[in-house]
Amino acid sequence: MKTRRHLPLIKPDVRFDDVAEDFLSILESGQLTSGGFVTAFERAVADYVGVEHGIAVTSATTALHLALVVSGIGPGDDVLISDFTFPATANVVLQQGARPVLVDSLADGFEIDPEDVERRCTDATRAIIAVDPFGQPADHMALERFAAARDLTLIADAACSLGASRDGRRAGAHGDVGCFSFHPRKTITCGEGGMLTTNDGELARRARSLRSHGAELTASGIVFTEPGFNYRLSELQAALGMSQMRRIDEILADRRRTCQLYQNLLSPDCDTVLIPRRPVGAVWSYQSFVVVLADEVDRTLVIETMGALGIETTIGTYACHQHPAFQSGVGAPLPNSARFARQALTLPVLPQMPESEVTRVVEALRKTVGS
Question: What pLDDT, on the 0 to 100 scale, is given for residue 329?
């Protein structure tokens, strides 16, 4: 009997042949950081997003941290953030001595609720970090209008959304600054890595300086203008990222094909597995394909049962208000975020995933949840 292959949650869409010559040239050059590949990668991402500046760093976490630093966020400030997010979004606010104020998701979508942003805004609020969960952009246009009216900094946590768009603008081009991740679970990966994207030249200048210890090159040499960090991306990481940027449209088309198959197979007569609605004007990048199980379904049992069938699944992400580290920012109840943290389920999305394997996942899921 033929053994069916184990289906992991993800597999990065990288090819050694695409990087072999670049890796060799980097190693032979002796310049392993802060070189031409980093510059080219920054330019490629910025041009793709449609902004003037890209600043490569070590992760989306350090990108978010730099965004807060250059925005002047510090002790005594409140920052409104998505509650339904990986905790890095809240951690960077706390690291600046500010307070992350947690905001609920929409009832029918994972993204931050602009109306709840307005409800939780106070005189202490200085910034908003709006997450694009799973490659699904938030309603940044509504948030931009609100931020402008209240003189707030708007940071787009676009960690998952390279290749997505909302209202005709690509993710990372909204707000004052966008922050991407190149973790292995993202559409484009450097192994680890991140980037800030912005049209603000002064913000970009300071971010470039701060990522390298606060150093700036002047006519008289290197001058350290303010205390900074070591957030530099390596040349090898940038070359790996560039190899995928050259075929980003192909990578995105493949992911969208797989996720459309999931949607087609799950939509009919499956009331125990719900698919969040895509807003008009939104194009998703599908960093992950995430569904919401009906309240009566035991998600832990689903994950265990699917795993026994050779199919890896996992939670969506976390509701920060449920964790001790972030209690200072908990105010009114966050029912939608809590529900998604309890019932969201991530399904495998693999490069060139055959329709037969998508069907296998859906059939196993339907059987497991009794649909």
Answer: 86
Amino acid identity of 196? L
**Is there a domain that residue 174 lies in?**
yes
Say whether pLDDT at 295 is over 60: yes
Distance CA 189, CA 195 (A): 12
- Residue 2 counted as domain residue: no
Task: Clarify whether residues 255 and 213 are in a common domain.
Answer: no
Is the domain of 240 the same as that of 307?
Answer: no
Q: Which of 227, 245, 263 is the last residue of a domain?
A: 245
Buried b (16+ CB within 10 A) or exposed e, 143-176: bbebbeeeebbbbbbbbbbbbbbbbebbbbbbbb
**pLDDT (average), residues 129-144:** 98
Q: Are residues 292 and 221 in the same domain?
A: no
State both tokens at 300. Answer: 């832990």
Q: What is the tally of structural domains in the chain?
A: 2
E-strand stretches of the chain: 53-57, 78-82, 99-103, 125-131, 153-157, 165-166, 169-170, 177-181, 194-198, 215-218, 221-224, 273-274, 282-283, 289-293, 314-315, 344-347
Q: 187 pairs with which residues across the strands? A: none
pLDDT tens-digit map of 197-228: 999 999 999 999 999 999 998 888 999 999 99
Residues 98-107 have a mean pLDDT of 98
- Tell me: do 67 and 196 sit in the same domain: yes
CB neighbours of 294 closer than 8 A, spacing ≥ 6? 271, 272, 273, 274, 343, 369
Q: Which two tokens stand for residue 306?
A: 């699917």
**CB proximity list for 151: less than 8 A, separation 6 or greater:** none
**Residues 207 and 297 grouped into a single domain:** no
Are 260 and 203 found together in one domain?
no
Segment 246-278, tens digit of pLDDT: 999 999 999 999 999 999 999 876 789 999 999
Q: Checking DSSP bridges between strand 344-347 and strand 314-315, what pairing results, if any? A: antiparallel
Query: Tens digit of pLDDT for each residue in 48-85?
Result: 999 999 999 999 999 999 999 999 999 999 999 999 99
Domain region containing 358: 248-369
What CATH number is associated with residue 272? Answer: 3.90.1150.10
